[in-house]
Structure prediction request, 544 residues.
Amino acid sequence: MSKYSDRRDFLKLTAASAGALTLAGLGLAPGLATAQDKRTLTVAWDTDIDTLDPASFKSIGGYTVQANIYDSPLMWKVQPVAGKPGLLQSKPGEMDGGIAESWAFEKNNATLVLKIRKGVKFPSGKPVNATSVKYLFDRGLQSPGYMRILFPRLLRVTKPDQFEVRDEYTFAINMPAPSPMALDTMALINNALLDPDEVKAHVTAEDPWATNWLKRNTAGLGPYQLVKNEPGVEIVLEARKDHWRGAPYFERVVFKFVPNEADRVLLLKRKAIDMVVGRPGLSPRNVKALEGEAGLKIVSVPDTTCHWVCMNSQKAPFNNVKVRQAINYAIPIQAIIPNVLFGYGSEMKSPVPNLTPGHDATASPYKYDIEKAKSLMREAGLGSTPVPIELAVRVGWLPHEQAAVWIQTELEKIGFKVSIVKETDATFRQVASKGDHQLSIESWQSWINDPIYHLFFNFHSTAKGTNTAFYSNPAVDKLIDDNMHETDNTKRLAAVKQLQKIIIDDAAWGHLWYDNWTRVMRADLVGIEKRWDTFERYFNMKLA
Prediction:
């Protein structure tokens, strides 16, 4: 067998010889006791890279790689987690320097000034300075992608001349007024520094920001560089010894494409890989089964990821608030939590995550009450004749698939005939963005841990593509708009409390659970960092 098998070869592995064939198919010798050499971190995931353009939306694989091959102006600071040796986690409002070694505010906090770290160079040898940082922001504002949405919304920056080069190492962002999310925006990995000359060398008249070239090419200076990108097989990163933070412990990070979760579990048990990453990575059921496995450890901390039953409020019968409320009362969450999450998550009490400032755990009246659900269906004029509906879930997202079965049973008790439809992640996202799902199980994680940011993308009527419930309430829109840039935290949190009550009364979501951020890895691996965007950085990882 050749060193690397393709996807189809991998999927042909038989159960009888799964151990040896899996290792061989991944380019790993069956006799190895550990993944590879001491300075290579071998990771299994179930994803691929769709683009490496920092400013664009991308797959989980694209973001994970980007978080290690690029640097952003600032970083979310991480602190050790009590009782969890080797794990570090972000806390709200705490920042570290990145390409900018320091920062300050001027003009009553309306201007953010970044002092660029001196002596840093791109791989080409050209120096990093305020002009190259300005290109980062100019490109983000004007090229297709995520930052073109965020800069006007979060910073109220709409013109490139609001980005100011004051001198060689001083860069300023001149906002019309203060923004409570300015520093968090600087930490987003979408704000990754690119070598302007390298990018400009690949622009065309049709593609003035080289977005096509950046799908598979890089132009940054992070702690790692991409040396191999073989879709469906593996991604390889190699450490930069001259990075401004010094050389990482692991000289190579190898991401093996392992689409089947059972195979990822097998590779962990055989110590052929060091860890599993990605979303979903490993289901709670399989994580639970690995508790106590010799040579492995599980790290798990609460996260801001929400999972919910998404009811398209523009489609009958879900345009009736009583039907949406009935579904909330019919969700058997007390059965789902232990039988689907196995302790690696918690019940959703509010659409605002429980780690997010302003979360109100007392806001929701919903609990499993099938009789109340039936009563609400009768008030809505339904329940006497089964209403056929489709419940869409992503293939491979086992908690969603498992929860769907529990939900299907209970919804059929209150007057629905439920068909569970399994879709690939790409199909699911495409159908959801068009509003063609009736009912689905959705997931969202806010990279900026701010309640108004979270509420805007999920509940504002103008948040196309992310407000997958197509929820629209003018009172909610106004409260979000009025408080997006409110700097009086007392007023802002009061608005967040009010927003939660309105959204919960409207039953915009069918409440399910908040995820834990959970990783299974070799027992001596330390330096794992959990930042707000959930994507691992490998710079500080090492063997104890």
Notes: Residues 1-21, 29-34 have pLDDT under 50 and may be disordered. The chain has three domains: 7-51+228-295+523-543, 74-199, 302-516. The first helix runs from residue 7 to 11.
